[in-house]
Design goal:
Chains A, B: It comes from Scyliorhinus torazame. The structure is a homodimer of 380-residue chains. Chain A is built from 14 helices and 13 strands. Chain A is of the alpha+beta class and 380 residues long. In chain A, strands 1-2-8-7-6-3-5-4 form an 8-stranded mixed β-sheet. In chain A, strands 10-9-11-12-13 form a 5-stranded mixed β-sheet, with helices on both faces.
C-alpha cells in the first residue's frame, strides 16, 4: 500500500480503482525456510477517493470473497475489525496511550495462543495491570455479526467512547452492504483481529483458510476455530497514507486488500498434485490438424482465417504430423476442439470439427466454421 | 533472448511457445536523452522446439504483422535477411573470416547512410580491399521478394556457397508461408539487414515504421526508402543459445521476436494527443445507476447480480449520486451501457438500459437483463 499511496500523491490522483499483480521485493531478511522469499509476487486491489462510508470497503470484501470462492480453496473466513473499535476499547479498558501498540500486537496473537497466555504476556512482559488485561479479555474474545455489533453499541463503556462508536456504526453499515452482496456468512466481526495498525485508520480484515481436518474438533464457533492455514488476504482502510507523501498533506481516503497469491498458488498446486485434474496450459480453442500428408499449406491458410476472426488457434509446426500426435497434443494441453482437414474435406468445402473430450466429430461447412467454433467455445 | 534461453536450459524445456511482458533492466549505461532508460518494459514472443524449417519463423513474422496492423501504427515494413546468406556473401566476396563481424556492423548502417559512406568505412577504417567492398556493394544494395531470391539462387558465386544456399532456400520457403498467411506484401528480403549477429543462426528481421511525410520524396523503392522512425520489433532464429547454457550442450532451436512496446506506446500516445480520440480507461461494460435517492441498496443488489453472471459492472460509491454525474462518468471512461433503476422500474420488474453513445433507452425485463447486456457487449 505504501508504493501505491506514494504513486497517488506524486501524480495527484484523487480517484482510482485498480488492481496490480507484480513482482515485488521485501526489505527485510525473509525466513526462507517458511517459504518467504525476498522476491515474490504481490496482488493488490485498492479503491481511492472520497466516497460515502463503507461502500468501497464492502466491495473489497466482496472481491476477496469472490476470489477465494472462485478458486475453490475450501472453507474460508474473513475476519473484520476496525482500528477505531480497537483504539476505543483500549481507551475504555484503561490502557495507557503509549502502550496501545504493544498491547495491540499481543492481541493479534490470539489466533495462535489461548487468552491466558496472551494475558500473561500483557501483564508480565508489557507491564499492564491485570484488571486492565481482564477488561480487554472480555472484549477480544468476542466475535459475531450484527447481533454482536448491536450488543457493543449498548455496552456501558464503549457507548461512551466517540471513536469506538464511529467504528461500530460503520461496522453495522458494512454488514448491511455485505448482506446485499450475499457474502456476510463468510465474514466475522472479530475483536481480536489487530494486525499491524501502523497506517490503518478504519476497517481492517484478514481472510484465512480453514483446514478441513480440524472440522472434527469440538468447536464453539464453527468457522473461527478450525485450524487456520494462515492468512491468504489482508487489508483495510488507510485514509492518512497518501497525505504523508503529498507535499501539502492533502489526503486521499483509500481502502485496499493484498491477495497472497503465492500462498494461494502453492495450495492450488498441492490440491492438483493430490488429484488427477488436468491443468489447462493454453488458451488455444482449436488445433487445425490433418490426417494426410502435404497439407501444411492448407492448414496454414485455415489457421490464418481463424486468427483473422479472433479465434485462438494453432497448428503443429511439422510438415506431415501424425493425427494421433496432434490429438494427443490437444489432450495434454486442454485444447477443446480440433478442425481436421483432408483432401475430401477440401473438395467438399467442409471441415471436420472434433470435440476432444467426447470424440464427437461433425462436418461443418467452411463458411460456418467460425460461427460453430464460437458457439462451442464462447462462454458469455 | 538470453534469459529465456537460460531458463529453457535450466528447466530442461525442449518445446514451448510463449509471450512475456515484463519490466527489465539494461546492463549498459543508457543514453537517457534518446529515451533509453535503464528500466523499461520488454515484450517478447518465442517459439522453441525441433520443428520443420521456417514454420515457426513465419508465425513470428505473422505476429509482428498482426501487432503492427492492429495497433494502426501506419505504414510499416518488416525487413528480413538470414545469417547464412550474410556469411556466405562475405565469404564469396573474399572478406577474411576475422573481419566478418566488423564488416557486418558497417553493412548494418546502410539504413542511415548511403553506400558510398559505408564503403568508405569498410576500406579506410576497417582495411577491406576496395574490390571486396565493391563486391559486397553489389549484394547489399539489393532488396526484393521471391524474384530476388530466384535470382540469387542462380548467382554464379552465391550458388557455389553451401551455407548461402541453405539460407536462400529457407528464405524461399519463408515467403511461400508468408504468402499463405497473407503478410508477404509488408515483408522485404533486404541484404543490408545485418543486426548484431552474435547469437543469430538463421533468419533475422526488423520491423520499421515509415513516416508518411517522407512519402512525397522521390523513391526507388516505395516502402524501404520512406524515412524510418526506427525499429519497433526485431528478432530472428537462435538455435545455439540454449545449448550454451545447458551443461551437456543440448541444443533447443529457437526463433523469437522482441516488440518495442515502449516506443510503440509513445507513438500511440502522440497520435492520441494529436487527435480527439477517447481512450477507454476501463473494461467495465455497465454502470448500475439511478436518478432517485435512497436506492444504493437496490444498486448494490443489482450490481452483485451482474457480477455473479460475469458481467463487468460498477456502481458509483455514493449514497445518492446525481444521474448526470453517473452518465458523465460513463462518457469519460468509455463505459458503453448504463442500467438505470428507479422506484417505477423496481415496481415493474424492469431495468432501463441506456446506450451511452446513442442515448437510446430501452426497458428490459429484469430476468432478461444479463442476456441483453451480453448481446450488446459480447464481441465473439
Amino acid at each position: 500500500m505504501v508504493p501505491f499511496a506514494r504513486y497517488l500523491a506524486m501524480n495527484k490522483i484523487t480517484n482510482i480503482k485498480r488492481y496490480h499483480i507484480a513482482k515485488v521485493y521485501r526489505r527485510d531478511n525473509p525466513a526462507m525456510t517458511r517459504g518467504r522469499y525476498r522476491e515474490f509476487y504481490q496482488c493488490d486491489f485498492d479503491i481511492a477517493g472520497q466516497y460515502d462510508p463503507m461502500i468501497p470497503d464492502a466491495e473489497c470484501l466482496k472481491i476477496v470473497h469472490e476470489i477465494l470462492s472462485e478458486l475453490q480453496l475450501g472453507e474460508f473466513l474473513i475476519k473484520v475489525n476496525d482500528r477505531r473499535v480497537l483504539d476505543g476499547m483500549f481507551e475504555v479498558c484503561g490502557v495507557p496511550a503509549d502502550k496501545f501498540r504493544t498491547i495491540c500486537s499481543a492481541v493479534d496473537k490470539m489466533d495462535k495462543m489461548p487468552w491466558e497466555d496472551v494475558k500473561n504476556e500483557m501483564v508480565s512482559e508489557k507491564g499492564l495491570a491485570p484488571e486492565t488485561a481482564d477488561k480487554i479479555g472480555e472484549y477480544v474474545q468476542l466475535n459475531g455479526r450484527s447481533e454482536l455489533i448491536d450488543k457493543l453499541v449498548q455496552d456501558a463503556k464503549l457507548s461512551q467512547n466517540k471513536v469506538a462508536m464511529e467504528g461500530l456504526n460503520d461496522m453495522k453499515q458494512l454488514f448491511v452492504y455485505l448482506t446485499l452482496f450475499g457474502v456476510e456468512e463468510k465474514v466475522l466481526f472479530d475483536l481480536s483481529l489487530a494486525r499491524g495498525l501502523d497506517y490503518y485508520t478504519g476497517v481492517i480484515y484478514e481472510a484465512v483458510l480453514a483446514q478441513s481436518q480440524a472440522a472434527t474438533q469440538t468447536q464453539h464457533n464453527e468457522l473461527s476455530e478450525q485450524v487456520s492455514v494462515g492468512s491468504v488476504a489482508a487489508g483495510g482502510r488507510y485514509d492518512g497514507l497518501v497525505g504523508m507523501f503529498d507535499p501539502k498533506g492533502r489526503k486521499v481516503p483509500c481502502v485496499g486488500v493484498s491477495i497472497g497469491i503465492e500462498r494461494i498458488f502453492s495450495i492450488m498446486e498441492q490440491r492438483l498434485e493430490a488429484s488427477d485434474e488436468k491443468i489447462r496450459t493454453t488458451e488455444t480453442q482449436v488445433l487445425v490438424a490433418t490426417a494426410q500428408k502435404n497439407l501444411l499449406e492448407e492448414r496454414m491458410k485455415l489457421v490464418a482465417e481463424l486468427w483473422k476472426s479472433g479465434i485462438k488457434a494453432e497448428i503443429t509446426y511439422k510438415k506431415n504430423p501424425k493425427l494421433l500426435n496432434q490429438l494427443q497434443y490437444c489432450e495434454e494441453t486442454g485444447i477443446p476442439l480440433v478442425a481436421i482437414i483432408g483432401e475430401q474435406e477440401l473438395k467438399d468445402g467442409v471441415v471436420k470439427l472434433r470435440v476432444v473430450s467426447t470424440r464427437e466429430e461433425v462436418d461443418v461447412a467452411r463458411e460456418n466454421l467460425i460461427e460453430e467454433i464460437e458457439k462451442r467455445t464462447c462462454q458469455p
